[in-house]
Write a sequence for this structure.
């Protein structure tokens, strides 16, 4: 049993991402992150599954980095029990590596995912532009006292203690806590609370962890409620990510532009783009989930 090679555990978030290798394609997490509803946080499962897939690469050129993943959350996980990640080596191509992984607790699948890794190539390039008129995080922090990024989002619920390892700095201060009706569009800055001593796959995993924050909340903005309302039951159902660039650090400010084009039938859909402060598009993610009224 070992830590996945390349990881030096230091911060709280790095401990959450620590995996134990049980066999060549079998992994188990060492730590658990409870969400604000008292169940296992979906972002943790997503990020650990990505690390497990990455940990099965054995190409002589060395492991490459992810370009996409597509996942389904099958049932709520227990935050007081370990998760087993069973990886299938689907294909090792010359440029693209494919993996499937099933996450289990008590022998039952709680999550499955397909992930694809791509060895870098030269090619055409374009990207959407950085949003106009968005203030930098330093300017927002100067305007706010106490800084909004210190407040947990979402807040603990029903006595469940949870730790948010990220600074979340909405451009509109009360974006995810107010019950004011707004358009289904959100801008917020995000970074880890602690500095990270991770390699590039570690920073990818951290963004996978963070990608489960804010999307379903955006889908609720037009409806006069928030995701932390006791009258709302939110749950991720399916999730996708596309990594466009590895030129980023998760412990530096990144701008998230989230947009929800549709909600209905007890579900909400949203997608988001992440940019560096320098304007580089590094990630696109999309999610559909339950936003039931209870």
């Amino acid at each position: 049993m070992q830590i996945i090679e390349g990881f030096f555990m230091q911060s709280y978030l790095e401990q959450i991402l620590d995996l134990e290798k049980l066999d060549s394609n079998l992994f188990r997490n060492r730590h658990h992150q409870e969400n604000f509803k008292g169940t296992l946080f979906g972002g943790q499962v997503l990020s650990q599954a990505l690390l497990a897939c990455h940990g099965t690469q054995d190409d002589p050129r060395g492991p490459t980095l992810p370009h996409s993943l597509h996942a389904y959350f099958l049932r709520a996980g227990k935050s007081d029990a370990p998760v087993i990640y069973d990886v299938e080596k689907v294909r090792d191509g010359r440029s693209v590596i494919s993996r499937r992984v099933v996450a289990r607790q008590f022998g039952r699948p709680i999550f499955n995912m397909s992930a694809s890794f791509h060895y870098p190539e030269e090619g055409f390039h374009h990207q959407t532009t950085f949003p106009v008129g968005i203030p930098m995080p330093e300017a927002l922090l100067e305007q706010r006292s106490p800084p909004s990024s210190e407040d947990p989002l979402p807040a603990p619920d029903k006595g469940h203690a949870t730790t948010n390892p990220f600074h979340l700095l909405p451009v509109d201060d009360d974006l995810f806590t107010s019950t004011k009706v707004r358009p289904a569009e959100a801008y917020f800055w995000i970074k880890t609370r602690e500095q990270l001593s991770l390699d590039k796959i570690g920073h990818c995993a951290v963004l996978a962890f963070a990608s489960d924050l804010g999307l379903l909340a955006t889908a609720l903005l037009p409806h006069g409620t928030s995701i932390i309302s006791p009258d709302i039951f939110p749950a991720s159902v399916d999730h996708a990510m596309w990594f466009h660039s590895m030129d980023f650090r998760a412990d530096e400010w990144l701008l998230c532009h989230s947009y929800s084009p549709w909600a209905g039938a007890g579900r909400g859909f949203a997608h988001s783009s992440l940019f560096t402060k320098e304007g580089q598009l590094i990630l696109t993610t999309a999610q559909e989930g339950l936003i039931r009224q209870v």
